[in-house]
Amino acid sequence: MQKPIYIIGVGAIGMTLAVLLKQASKEVILIRGRQDSRPETQDARITLDFIDGITLEATVPISTLDQFMVLDGFILLTTKAYGNPELAQRLIGKTGKSPIVLLQNGLRIEEPFIDADFPEVYRCVLLATSQVQAPYSVRYKPVAASPIGVIRGHESSLAELIEQLNTAQFPFRMEEAIQRAVWEKVISNCVFNAVCPLLGVDNGIFHRNALALALAREIIDECLAVANEVGIMLNRMDVENRLLQISQRSDGQLISTLVDINQGHPTEIESLNLAVARLAQRLGKPNLANRTRLLGELIQLKSALSQVP
């Protein structure tokens, strides 16, 4: 019997996955990450526009977490990671043995779920870009197969999980060295999620502008130095090439942090630049992340100013 896929987070990635999985004949339920005054359950017709002009649509039920006593299936988290401590507490007693997959950005974002003793926790490093265009309308572009690895659980369960989630338009793959992949993505995010919002530009700036790329290289070097201190050894050119690949393939798209600031919402910068800076501080080497920390603090300030009534 096919188990349902619960996607917590009705944002760009959550809606993208919902449409593609629904198109693949999966049972999909979107769950709002926060409590609000909207109807407890509703059906939404979601439109997914690909960069190449193809459009897909699917009708997906959207509900609230309070409507479920038990989430018996596969649980995907596509909410912003700053909400994980609260979300982990709300999920206690609801998930049973269901695997939880974090499709989120940031360092150590899985800790609230480990601390709460959830039995199966997996991390996904998203290698795709998507952007909400209008209510229930998303623009999407895949970059590469997104790796998923075990934080707590079993590789056999992970293989089943990937089989359930995999689609041609949003592929996933198993990754044994998931923390290496996490750091690679975090470093890219420390560049995109700081520089693009401060300049007010799209993701393509780094392959278009030499000065922006030079700044990106400084951030990459700092983050690599911190990663090395905790035993994560990455190839500098591989990281830069991946950043340029993302920049080229998401040319014209806005990074989520810029969208959040424009809409007066909190950002993920605490789990990105500022998390790298805190780690450097704990290691007794705060100067390793000076530029990374400064850019993170500027984003933090810009975000706070955007939320002032």
TrEMBL record:
Catalysed reaction equations from the record: (R)-pantoate + NADP(+) = 2-dehydropantoate + NADPH + H(+)
One GO molecular-function entry: 2-dehydropantoate 2-reductase activity
Protein's UniProt keywords contain ATP-binding: no
Domain Ketopantoate reductase N-terminal, first and last residues per copy: 5-140
Known EC number: 1.1.1.169
Keyword Oxidoreductase (UniProt): yes
Name assigned to this protein: 2-dehydropantoate 2-reductase
Native source species: Spirosoma profusum
